[in-house]
């Protein structure tokens, strides 16, 4: 999964020109950069499961695991799965509001700039989704971001009401009684996916991404002609995409609400509130997610992911913001800060490196290393990216993909290298 401060906000360099331009580094909320960097770690730990076993294949691997691998799988599911994608989504909405407020303060256009920003993200996401890795989230962000454009000017309470309505609609299906037998069986597709990813060439894997539909292989339990089956499979695929986009948009609205309330802008002033939010939301969120892991209840599994995950994410955002602001000068927090400022570049780099390691056109290690080795690889890559990001940002103003995105957004080539001041 699952993104950069450049995916979520536009804190950029000042300019006196008539068009919007990037904000100066001194105007950044640095604890948000660090939070984003930490979220990159959480997302990679979750995405490693998909890189190692396939995006659909991860659904059935728990029964194959034992010992430390099984424990680590449950720990990742509990603490990270379904929570750090929402962190990024909320920060996306948070940053969009900051960009809009800044444009309004200076009397400059917002909508067309933001729409251009989303269209460029849409192209990046489509390319990433079909030609690098099918676990992409950028495309979904772009689609939800286009809708967010029409809500950005609304009052905080209006934004919150819409978010709560969407949250209810997304969670309401979980109230319908169901059993494990009612769940869609994707095991046949999972086996096909593993074979293609582990043995296929780049062309074969790309063709699979462009043409495959996971729902084509399901047993519907009743007779249906091939055309009807294809139409139903296409409907399920569309509905799944729509649900994911609705969830992203709902989380954008929550982030927009937080930005409009300025809770993360003034941490000292709001410390008491943020501590309470952290304790309550992390406790409730992780309790729901824990019930999802410890039981086979279909309803708890549904609410654990779609409700528990976002609730825990809100607690992570408030708690980690306080932590990163307090220890902002430590090397660890500075490392996460640099990582977060180049989150888009780092996120896309994960896909290139890990698909090369695990897919057939690379080293072909799909399903061979296990959860422990995969997690250690993820942590090692994050540490390397911390050092690289810090080095890069000491010489350049933006990461490579961040620079490309900004230049396209403002229809102007942005300054790239940092200008060194002459010492006398």
Walk me through this protein's architecture.
With 424 residues, the chain is an all-alpha fold. The chain has one domain. The chain has helices at 5-8, 30-53, 67-79, 84-105, 111-131, 138-148, 156-171, 187-199, 202-211, 226-261, 271-294, 298-326, 331-341, 343-358, 370-393, 400-410. Helix 2 runs parallel beside helix 14, helix 11 (271-294) packs antiparallel against helix 12 (298-326) and helix 13 packs across helix 15. The radius of gyration is 22 Å and the shape is globular. Mean pLDDT is 89; it is low at 1-26.
Features:
mainly alpha; 16 helices; disordered N terminus; Bact_Transport_Assoc; transmembrane helix
Mean pLDDT: 89
Helix content: 55-70%
Class of secondary structure makeup: mainly alpha
Shape label:
globular
Q: What would you report as the Rg, rounded to the nearest angstrom?
A: 22 Å
Instruction: Report the count of strand segments.
Output: 0
Oligomer status: single chain
* Poorly predicted tracts of residues: 1-26
Strand content: under 5%
Q: How many domains in all?
A: 1
In DSSP terms, counting alpha (H) and pi (I) runs of 4 or more, how many helices? 16
Query: Strand count, sense and closure of the main sheet?
Result: none
Keywords: Membrane, Transmembrane, Transmembrane helix
Organism: Ornithinibacillus halotolerans
Protein name: DUF418 domain-containing protein
Pfam family, one: DUF418
């Amino acid at each position: 999964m699952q993104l950069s401060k450049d995916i979520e906000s536009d804190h950029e360099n000042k300019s006196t020109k008539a068009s919007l331009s990037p904000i100066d580094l001194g105007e950044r909320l640095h604890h948000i950069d660090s939070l984003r960097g930490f979220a990159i770690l959480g997302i990679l730990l979750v995405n490693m499961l998909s890189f190692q076993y396939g995006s659909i294949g991860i659904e059935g691997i728990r029964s194959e695991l034992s010992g430390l691998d099984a424990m680590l799988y449950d720990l990742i599911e509990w603490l990270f799965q379904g929570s750090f994608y929402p962190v990024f989504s909320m920060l996306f909405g948070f940053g969009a509001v900051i960009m809009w407020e800044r444009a309004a303060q200076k009397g400059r256009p917002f909508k067309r700039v933001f729409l251009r920003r989303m269209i460029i993200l849409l192209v990046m996401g489509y390319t990433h989704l079909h030609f690098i890795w099918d676990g992409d989230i950028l495309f979904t962000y772009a689609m939800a971001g286009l809708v967010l454009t029409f809500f950005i000017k609304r009052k905080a309470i209006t934004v919150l009401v819409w978010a709560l309505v969407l949250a209810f609609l997304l969670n309401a299906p979980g109230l319908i009684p169901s059993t494990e037998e009612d769940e869609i069986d994707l095991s046949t597709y999972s086996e096909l996916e593993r074979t293609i990813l582990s043995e296929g060439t780049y062309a074969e894997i790309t063709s699979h991404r462009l043409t495959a539909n996971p729902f084509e292989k399901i047993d519907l339990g009743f007779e249906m002609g091939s055309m009807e089956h294809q139409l139903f499979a296409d409907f399920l695929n569309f509905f799944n995409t729509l649900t994911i986009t609705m969830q992203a948009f709902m989380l954008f609205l929550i982030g927009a609400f937080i930005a409009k309330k300025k809770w993360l802008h003034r941490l000292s002033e709001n410390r008491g509130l943020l501590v309470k939010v952290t304790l309550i939301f992390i406790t409730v969120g992780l309790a729901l997610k824990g019930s999802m892991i410890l039981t086979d209840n279909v309803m708890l599994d549904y609410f654990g992911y779609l409700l528990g995950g976002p609730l825990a994410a809100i607690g992570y955002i408030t708690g980690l913001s306080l932590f990163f602001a307090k220890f902002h000068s430590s090397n660890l927090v500075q490392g996460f800060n640099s990582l977060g400022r180049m989150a888009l570049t780092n996120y896309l780099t994960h896909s290139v490196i890990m698909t090369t390691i695990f897919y057939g056109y690379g080293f072909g290690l799909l399903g061979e290393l296990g959860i422990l080795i995969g997690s250690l690889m993820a942590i090692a890559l994050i540490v390397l990216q911390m050092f690289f990001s810090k080095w890069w940002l000491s010489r350049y103003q933006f990461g490579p993909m961040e620079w490309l995105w900004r230049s396209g957004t403002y229809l102007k080539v942005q300054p790239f290298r940092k200008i060194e001041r002459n010492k006398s």
